[in-house]
Task: inverse folding
């Protein structure tokens, strides 16, 4: 029996919460466990594409072509530590180009259909907004992982995301659920971070992952070298946190 990929969107309409870092490193951690993994870069900034050493300006076929021209997603994939469906700068124009299409919220979901049996996990990095690109990701996904920075824990942002998810459940994807909320950029020395995590757990209970992603300079260094933190510093605490997160997600799936 062939199993279909579990599709996970990493989403938070707030920027600067380590979303791209989390998407890539969780994906690489899945791959280390022996899973077949695809990461999909839906952010016009192309940070995920760049952090695997690919220049978005030189990508001939990107997610723009997949979404707008319905090109096969296989043509946008490059093989790196994991398979990467690349972004390019013209992805910024995708929302306008798609706006007249019927079924525009389902473009990504349709693009995945032919490859669902090729992978165990498909991890989608989304832009920091709740626009059409993010809506495509949430419509195509089974689960959402929400990275949240613990410093200025914007509960409002999470509530906004929950409202969007409710709307998507009602209209586009009845099965989408929050896989978990991930505290990122945690500076464990501050009382503020501890309070923020307490508030998070009070509001979201067991949906807050046990894993914590601490602040480290490695997150800035690794992408410059075109690699994940797991490859850049395999024995570091950052790599270890993402391995633990990947195990949590895999275990959740077995429950």
Result:
């Amino acid at each position: 029996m062939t199993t279909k990929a579990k599709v996970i969107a990493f989403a938070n309409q707030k920027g600067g919460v380590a979303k791209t870092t989390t998407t890539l490193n969780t994906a690489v951690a899945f791959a280390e466990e022996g899973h077949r993994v695809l990461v999909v870069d839906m952010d016009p900034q192309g940070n995920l594409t760049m952090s695997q050493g690919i220049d978005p300006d030189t990508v001939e076929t990107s997610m723009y072509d997949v979404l707008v021209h319905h090109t096969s997603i296989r043509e946008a994939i490059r093989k790196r530590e994991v398979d990467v469906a690349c972004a390019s700068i013209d992805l910024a124009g995708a929302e306008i180009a798609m706006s007249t299409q019927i079924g525009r919220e389902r473009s990504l979901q349709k693009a995945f259909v032919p490859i669902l049996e090729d992978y165990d996990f498909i991890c989608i990095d989304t832009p920091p907004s709740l626009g059409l690109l993010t809506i495509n990701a949430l419509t195509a996904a089974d689960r959402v992982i929400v990275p949240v920075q613990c410093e200025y824990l914007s509960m409002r942002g999470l509530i906004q995301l929950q409202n969007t998810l409710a709307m998507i459940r009602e209209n586009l994807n009845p099965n989408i659920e929050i896989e978990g909320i991930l505290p990122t950029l945690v500076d464990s020395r501050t009382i503020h971070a501890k309070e923020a995590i307490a508030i998070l757990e009070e509001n979201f209970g067991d949906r807050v992952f046990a894993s914590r992603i601490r602040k480290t300079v490695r997150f800035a260094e690794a992408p410059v070298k075109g690699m994940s933190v797991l490859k850049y510093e395999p024995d570091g605490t950052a790599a270890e946190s993402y391995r633990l997160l990947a195990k949590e997600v895999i275990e959740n799936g077995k429950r």
